Amino acid sequence: MNRNETADLLLAWYETRRRDLPWRQTHDPYLIWISEVILQQTRVAQGLEYYLRFTARFPDVKTLAEADLDEVLKYWQGLGYYSRARSLHAASREIMTRFGGRFPERYEEVRSLKGVGDYTAAAVCSIAYGQPYATVDGNVYRVLSRLFDLDLPIDTTAGKRHFADLAQALLDRKDPGRYNQAIMELGALQCLPRNPECALCPLAGKCLARAAGKERVEALPVKSPKKAVKPRYFNYFRVHCGEMTLLSRREGRDIWQHLYEFPLIETEVPTEYDRLREQEAYRKLFAGANERVWRVTDMPPHILSHRVIHARFYEVDVPVFTSGMDAYVQLREESLGDYAVSRLIESYLQREPVPRESFPGKPASARSAKS
User: Fold this and answer.
1) HSE on the CB side for 122, CA within 13 Å?
2) Is the dihedral of CA 302, 307, 310, 313 positive or negative?
3) How many Å apart are CA 69 and CA 75, to the nearest integer?
4) How far, in Å, are 19, 20, 21 from residue 185 at the CA level?
5) Which residues fall within 8 angstroms of residue 85, CB to CB, at 6 or more apart?
6) How far is residue 163's CA from residue 166's CA, in Å, rounded to a whole number?
7) What is residue 116's three-state secondary structure?
8) How far apart are CA 300 and CA 303, in angstroms?
9) Ramachandran angles phi, psi of 347, nearest 5°
10) Nearest of 91, 61, 64, 90 to residue 75 by alpha carbon
11) Residues 6+ positions from 69 with CB-CB distance below 8 Å
12) What pLDDT, in 10s, does the model give residues 231-242?
């Protein structure tokens, strides 16, 4: 396949079909970096609003590096994959200390930043600096697998290496940044996962999968069999003490690291309230509290990459915060919005409130509100 001809067809198509997006109007490596990180695992339609809000608050490396991580996570809230935000923050501080506040230019230096992989380094270096590094994202995998009719799994080491080499071989070295954006845009707008617009594709005449038929097109790209999804059972306690409530910050290497949540008891199986009250964690939290549960809310299953969270929220009144609650952040209810939380908790908080008078009774007879 002629590389120059393929690039010319792609670039001509790109000039007429590309979307007008703010990160395409700049060569600032910082802004390009932010856009690429946001758009990982995020559609453009959703990511655009976050990009505008994030860059308005953190317009440069220095501003981001000087910000508190909690604030960065709050601006990221709703995007998911919070490790991206933590890595952005850490990398911005690396740039300040290692590179004197100037975004690095060499590929190896960009690639060395926290959270920056091959794809992001290639995108920044090609778009901002015009360096000849090919980007390979989900859209590029799809285009190349169909163009060359390749059924090599894209999520294996061998598959990733093969597609990376192929993308690099096809790269237009005269204008690598625009070429990278063109092939990604083709995958985003026309070479779609389902019902691709093959008849309008600039590469239709070269596409081997199209020549093999529609079923072959939609069978590509190929991935390895999915791993089993592990269920987890979260029992949250939203504790009310007058106008105050409790939060804790998730630490360790588990999901939602550094985000805030209500007091949590995780169980291995679905567990009813009477059994929860027998657990040591419950007795420690509510020792001497004279608690009253007035609502129980079961949320829809919250699906993550290899986990599904089954969450139940108990709303609990206590007359005073007891010693078992000293380890938690005690804050006014009206301040909940200042803390970065997971999308699961955000969805729970956005539910329409129900008056407490609607749920009388003692803890053991708390009524359940199904989502």
Assistant:
1) 20
2) negative
3) 10
4) 8, 11, 11
5) 72, 73, 75, 76, 79
6) 5
7) coil
8) 9
9) -65, -40
10) 64
11) 86, 89, 258
12) 999 999 999 999
For the chain, the first-to-last Cα distance in angstroms comes to 54
**Amino acid (1-letter code) at residue 77:** Q
- Give the three-state DSSP class for 103: coil
Q: Could you tell me which of 252, 82, 348 has the C-alpha nearest to residue 72?
A: 82
Q: Which residue carries 């995958």 as its tokens? A: 187
3-state class of 368 per DSSP?
A: strand
Neighbouring CB atoms inside 10 A of 272's CB total 11
- Annotated catalytic, 36? yes
All domains in the chain, ordered by first residue: 3-219 (1.10.340.30), 230-370 (3.90.79.10)
How much is the CA Rg of the chain, to the nearest whole Å? 25
Pairing label, strands 292-298, 307-317: antiparallel
pLDDT tens, 349-361?
Answer: 998 665 554 443 3
Choice among 15, 36, 334, 346 that is catalytic: 36
What is the pTM for the complete model shown? 0.84
Complete DSSP assignment for 203-236: TGGG-HHHHH-HHHHHH-S--PPPPPPEEEEEEE
* pLDDT given at position 360: 38
Is the predicted pLDDT of residue 204 greater than 80, yes or no? yes
State how far Cα 268 lies from the chain centre.
Answer: 26
What's the rounded Cα separation, in Å, for the pair 184 and 244?
49
Are 313 and 238 in contact by the 8 Å Cβ rule? The answer is yes
Write out the DSSP string of 22-46. GGGG---HHHHHHHHHHTTTS-HHH
Q: How far, in Å, CA of 124 to CA of 35, rounded?
A: 10
Q: Are 370 and 313 in contact (CB under 8 A)?
A: no
DSSP string, 240-262: EBTTEEEEEE--TTSTTTT-EES
